[in-house]
Amino acid sequence: MNFHFFQKKSLQALLVLAAFSIQLDAHDGIKVSPRLFLSGSYMASTGLMRDGIRQQGLLPMKEPYSTLSSFKHFGDGGGEAVANPAVFQATGNDAIVDWVMVELRSASNMSSPVSTHSALLQRDGDVVSTDGVSPVSFKNLASGNYHVAVRHRNHLGVMTAQALPLSGTAVLVDFTSEGTALYGANPCATIGGKRVLWLGDANQDKRFIHQGPNNDVFSLYSAVLSAPANTSNSGNYMLKGYLMPDFNMDGFATFYGPNNDKAFSFQQAALQGNGMLNYILTEQIPN
Ligand SMILES: [Ca+2]
Ligand SMILES: [Ca+2]
Ligand SMILES: [Ca+2]
Question: What is the rounded distance in angstroms from the CA atom of residue 64 to the CA atom of residue 85?
């Protein structure tokens, strides 16, 4: 072994060691297991959410939030996709309801997320990774205290009031429990002792408005009336699709008829506003 060879080998070993220590220095990542219910799809009788969108074959393989102007990804989030079609074939309690967006915010700066990841929501409320079962993983974040928020494309999102200690060992953040302190005033509804997110933000302005300026029912009405296949402009038309005005998440936007989406909006407005249908609900997450 000549000197140069030895030197070269030592250098290689040093480089490997350096790379290894960088690896050790790198963050161990964060895993989190949120649990939440969406009021539009929640059925108190079973304690599960309906998975009509999945049953109609309408769930997109790639997360929708990157394409929505009212949602913004942070950190290494965005573009999450389901690689295995079998994930959307699971039935029962763990069947997939829809995509959600999970946000982590630092304890010192609540105003904007450190990182976001799109994830999948199961019928029993578990929020999981794109494999349909694992906790949501933020590989590039260090352990620490974070506020956890979950947003949905047509429900009003929620955020923990406290920054919670998170690490590489998954922590359950149960937004369905009244025991979890939430940020803001009147952040969500409660049905049968379970917390559920407010439904009905069809126009994605982070507010629910049934009646009055910028109301969400208008978005529902226009979507149904202007659907290309609805040649007679009928209010009874059932518009099938992955749609923002599908408040009850059965795979159809409907204005009249059985289980119509307008009725879901009306009921929420009437209950919250004590009959005042122009009552406004605003998402309780800092902007
Ligand atoms: Ca589950
Ligand atoms: Ca709205
Ligand atoms: Ca519907």
Answer: 17
Q: State in Å: Cα 99 to ligand 1 middle.
A: 15
CA distance 37 to 190: 10
DSSP summary character for residue 135: P
Ligand nearest to the CA of 220: 3
How many Å from the N-terminal Cα to the C-terminal Cα in the chain?
64
- Span from the CA of 244 to the centroid of ligand 2 (angstroms): 10
Helices 216-225 and 261-272, axial angle in degrees (round to 10):
170
In sequence order, the β-bridge partners of residue 31 are 137
Handedness of CA 133, 126, 270, 218 (dihedral sign): negative
Q: Going by DSSP bridges, is the β-strand pair 164-166/280-282 parallel, antiparallel, or unpaired?
A: unpaired
Which residues lie below 8 Å from residue 164, measured CB to CB, with a gap of 6+? 145, 146, 147, 148, 171, 173
Q: What is the pTM of this model?
A: 0.90
pLDDT in tens, 230-268: 999 999 999 999 999 999 999 999 999 999 999 999 999
